[in-house]
Write a structure and sequence with these properties.
Length: about 80
């Protein structure tokens, strides 16, 4: 968030949790977008670029899973 004063009063969600939710959503959206890019590269028979995008997609999935784990634990009160 850009504001140094927002702590969940506006959203009902503390900044640290909101930021984690945003991060998970961004990772998942990136994984979806990269699927389209992979298909474009494969259509052009550019395996080097397709492989790069597959790696980036795997990294995005991993980030989403890590973030979901943290979020789950925090929302459960652990």
């Amino acid at each position: 968030m850009t504001s140094s004063t927002e702590t969940g009063g506006v959203t009902g969600t503390p900044d640290k949790d909101y930021n984690l939710i945003w991060y998970v959503e961004a990772c998942l959206n990136n994984a979806l977008r990269l699927e389209s890019y992979i298909q474009d590269a494969e259509r052009e028979k550019d395996t080097e670029v397709a492989d790069l995008f597959r790696k980036a997609q795997a990294d995005s999935r991993k980030g989403a899973e890590l973030g979901k784990g943290l979020l789950r634990a925090r929302l459960d009160g652990s």
